[in-house]
Amino acid sequence: MNRRSFLQNAFRTGALASLVTAGLALPKQVWAAWNQKAFKSKSYTDAVGELYGNNALADSDNIILKAPDIAENGAVVPITVESELPNIESISILVEANPSPLAAEFKLAPGMRGYASTRLKMGKTSNVHAVVKADGKLYKATKEVKVTIGGCGG
Amino acid sequence: MANQIRIRAKATGNVVEVKALINHPMDTGQAKDKSGNLIPEYFIQTVEAKVNGQTMMNAQWSVAVSKNPYLAFQYNGKKGDTVDLVCVDNKGETYEGSVKVR
User: Fold this and answer.
1) Alpha-carbon separation of residue B42 from B25, B34, B47, B66, B93 (angstroms)
2) What residues of chain B have any CB closer than 8 angstroms to a CB in chain A?
């Protein structure tokens, strides 16, 4: 049976519809879906709002944001976020001056430690924000990274 | 897609650190090629990490993650765990890597 006739049959019998309503066909994709709105947001506070549903950020000393003071190459800026806050659900990294500030979000299951490290592109000198969602609340740490050669546009 | 992901995982006490390097151009959609044409966006959108088959992390990335992405994370685990990474880019291509924790 090819895909088209399978789909037609499924719709005729309603089998697919019932699969969807039963939540069998979709949950994994919903969880892993790429958050277009958050990633296309032009301001970092909008991006946080789209990602977490609110953007009330409290500064926290319990987030360590490791980033260079000066990045000679904006195409490769190492960023590490560490936190001992309890019940961390999510860590995200936002580069305020990038065209789309949200760079990465890491959703963590229980058993994961509050740690995420990656390398980002930065178009120019900017504040970098690490946002941590723990116990349902949002916390952030901020650090300015000076960029001498931009990483966007090549 | 062989060797798209290089991955290492090491246990220190009951903390496992996983480090991965993924081969991918991560094109931003803003750079131009030599003849002045925009290179379209081409980047990894989601990364899922599983430990012994159970999902532990779901990451979403933008074009701002550097070319040939580096990723490190930590979890409470032990030597002998199996760590799987599944990356999916915006063209729907999937890259997978697996490693046993040392």
Assistant:
1) 7, 18, 15, 12, 11
2) 15, 28, 30-32, 45-46, 48, 51, 54-67, 69-77, 88, 90
Long-range contacts of A49-53 (CB under 8 A, 24+ apart): A51/A92, A51/A102, A51/A105, A52/A90, A52/A131, A52/A133, A52/A138
DSSP states along chain B: -TTSEEEEEEEETTEEEEEEEE----B-S--B-TTSPBPPPB-EEEEEEEETTEEEEEEEE-TTBPSS-EEEEEEE--TT-EEEEEEEETT--EEEEEEE--
pLDDT, tens digit, 9 for 90 and up, residues B28-70: 999 999 999 999 999 999 999 999 999 999 999 999 999 999 9
Q: State pLDDT tens for residues A115-139.
A: 999 999 999 999 999 999 999 999 9
Regarding pTM above 0.80, the answer is yes
User: How many CB pairs below 8 Å do chains A and B form together?
Assistant: 107
Reported ipTM: 0.95
Both tokens of residue A100?
């789309």
* Cβ–Cβ gap B56/A109 under 8 Å: yes
Do B65 and A32 lie within an 8 Å CB cutoff? no
